[in-house]
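Hello, quick one for you while I still have it in my head. I'm working through a protein record and want to make sense of it properly. Would you mind checking whether the tokens look sensible for this chain? I owe you a coffee for this, so here goes:
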Amino acid sequence: AVREIAAGGETRVLVGMPPVDQAPVAERHWFLRVLPTLQWLVLGILVLVTAIFYEDVNAMRLAARAAVLGSKATKDGGVVHETGVSQAPSNKLELGRKGGPRAPLLTAPPAPDSAAPVPMAGRAPKVSVVTLDNTGESKDGDEAKDVDPRPVLPPPIEAGQEVEAGGKTAPRSDPAPSSGSDLRPGGPVPLPDVPASIGGEWRSIGKTQPLTGEDLSAPGALEAAAEKRSFRKEIIVMVANEGGAILTANAVANLRSVGIEHYLIVTNEPKSCGLLMNGPWGITCGYTSYLKNHERLKDYQLLAEEGATPFRLWWVRFHFLDRLVQLGYNPMYIDTDVSFRVNPYPLLKGPFKEYSLFAQDETGHFNGVNIGWIYAQNARPNGRVRWVLNQTVTRMMEILEHQPEPLTRWDGQPVVGAKEALWDQHIYNDVLESCVYGEDMRRRSMQRLIEPRDDLRRAWEVEQGYPMDGAAFDKGRVVVNAEDVPLTARGDPMDLRAGSHAVKFKPLKCYDHFTPDEASKPPEKIAAAPPWLVAGWSGVHGDEKFQGVSGNWNLYPPRVAVAHFVGGLAKQTTFKSLGWWQYGSDAFRKRSLHGLQTELDRGGALAVAGLRAGVDSADAMEATSLYGAAVANVIRLALAAGRRPVIPALDCASRWITRGGDGTFLGVRDRLHVVVSGRCDADSAAGGGGPRSPPGGVVFERPGFGACCQSVQFDCNEGVIPQVDLDRDPRFESLQDDVAYVKVDELLGSGVDEDGLPAVDGAGLEEKLRGPSLVVMELGDSTRGYGDGQHVPGLRAPDAKQAERVLEFFRTCQNMNCVTPRTVWPNENSFCDDPNRKEG
């Protein structure tokens, strides 16, 4: 034994330790015996970890180096890409004909994504990507890209119940998934499978690779993402913030329905991308840090990025379009309220192949195009098309970084906010005009969206020497062959005759800084898409029969290839009324009423039958007030009963609804109040629409199928069930399997509501209606003032829980709060307000 001498001379025995001179080192302790093995094991782990995370570490190292040292300017074929420097060489922007510093051609704005590409490794989505085509087929000369295995969902149900009008039919909807018993209100809906024949040679489903939520503005990320998401050098760019995720999800489903999966979704934040990736469809996307921390954003009140004006995303779309053209791609940008009725590539690659840039014609002039749909094809990397895209970004940067003096408008007044200074459509149109005329022009920059004194502005334009010739396009012809006409998802050609068609175009001259090789080449051309190629809802140029406001988007086969809802109101309701909404997209919504809606779905739904509020009135103010008040009371009663309110559609034959001329669907043209639809049931439990024969000579293919006019004035995307949803959303079919009808008089108490009519007492209402999935309150046989269908009884004496539900709902859906004394005010086009309310 070995003894240890302790303090004070005492000793203690250390048991089990052999004398150091009696055994080899390797045998003295177990740790020493396994040490060599541990050394090799640790070394192996280090090598493995390095191999796995090398790409992440390398990307972080490059990003850190760029942040510290800055990006160096590079030169490529005579095109200078300056990074990390201001685009405003002067302190003052003069905005006349000669105004504004003349920036070098194709000067890229400060952004790290122009650096050399590096492999990107991002985080994976939490759920599998559920896109339903797993055929992996490839066309001649096109290898299918490797994709992750994806779950296969049930096949689609057959489209049915069509409407015929003037030789055309209106389908019930695009193919939808089977409505099995597993679909419940508020639950997910699988994406429908897409038959292998859809899309033809331009079908890209199964031929792209997913992203992983990476920052697309990091070094090399855009290049890597374009390689993954493109198909035959085609790529479709969309941008979205968190609030726009629901429209983005519907747009993805729409693109897939015509065979397209080569899209690139760019969000403003990682959480916005996460909302798409982690939803039931696992939508692939990336986000952008482009200009995220720019010091001048706060000066233009642009720090908040949710809402309808996400300026930073608008700017990045042009920046990415510019970069993609430089990289040799054919990029298309679409707003998320764009719907493809057919796959447009047969037209773009056939009759329109000689045009390199496309725009939606909004005014009939080349300096007044809409930028909700932009397409560039076969554009030269240093050519005029790229000049237009790059110069748009350059001018944005000039304005954003302008300092220190305040910017002034055309009339000398200080610029107020980004809507005057940085409205991208105005800047883009100025650039187009500059390129067409071949000199620097800034006619639209620094003006309000709607000028109060257009005569003064025109005088200023003359003073500045701007051409006043109308900015007319040149006129040309394209020949559409029979094989160029795209097919619908059902295999039918769109309503487009083969033959010669008019097209408007302009050669792009641009100015300055071209390489000698580019300067010697013929100008690239911009084409204004004819309305049968790209149509708008309203307020756009061209024959109105192609516009959505005419109701003709209901017709089948479609007469437009691409539909853009510019000018439309209540876009989700409009999509649904046309049958162009993929139910299940709501799973990607950032919901304000999620908790309340979930609670109400457990209780079922409440509808009203026999509502005729304002139907026979020719006074729009009176009619909309009656309808708004009735809808508000339906909502209050349903919430008090613990149920979802079902909002009845309007009868399209109502006298007050604005009529259209010849060629309008169902004879209705009323943009401010209703969207006309052929997809409601005439005998719907919601009680709206028919059953009277609608105007316009429409013949319904199946008995009981009818037309309706869904309100866009009293509308909310949460909490309520519009009639078109009750009739068409497969998740609500279970409601209609368990319906109970109750006479309104049976629910009335002894008190009166705000209008002096008999009211429904809140006490005991939920218990009284408990049981059936859908309760329908019938007005028709009432003997207590509701038999004419002009009113719905109000709610009297709600308890605290009922009152809180009503308050929470109307706090989110304020435009549906028409409870007396609130009424439509100050005119029939407005939402409800209290006309007696005093400001301040």
